[in-house]
Amino acid sequence: MNDWKYSRRNGLCSACTRAFAEQEQLYSLLRMHEGVLVREDRCPACFGAALAAEFESSGGLAYWRTRFAPGGGLRLDLDSLEALFLTLVGRAPPADGAAPDARVGELCYLLGLLLLRKRRLKLDRIAPARGDEREKLVVHRPRRPQQYEVAVYDLTPERQAELRDELKRIFEGAELVQLLEGAAHGSGASAEAAASDA
User: Of 11, 100, 125, 195, which residue is the least packed, with the fewest Cβ within 10 Å?
Assistant: First the structure.
């Protein structure tokens, strides 16, 4: 399996190159460009509604709002993880496994397990595998009726570590390390473990 490459953040708006002030609100955008997972951070002036529409139509993976925290880089919160999950769940490969590159599906699954563990998602049921389709977690957000289907992946401990590292590099947040280790450890790479955490 190919490793993803990442562009690094530098505390500057990727459009106007202005340095972010402490606790300044900004937008982080995540997209694939020529096999490289690229994260761009934009100030609100450079983000705007036009960029959001262009970003979505050009195949961008996700964007979320966050705040700049000096010393720790850009801080991660569960709202950012939830926003990334909600974007990826619609772009993950179908549960029949037809897509040749399942990395987005694996990330979505790992994020789903984390959000289940942190009670940001509730497990409705586990849909069994049928034919070529994968087993699926059917989840919803608390106090919201919309359900999401998350394909279950049998992640080896090595692949879980790779996915954790990929998400750590995306967010570069110390808090994320502990959360993801707990989600992957609790998952045991099986849907039954997710059900017991939920």
Answer: 100
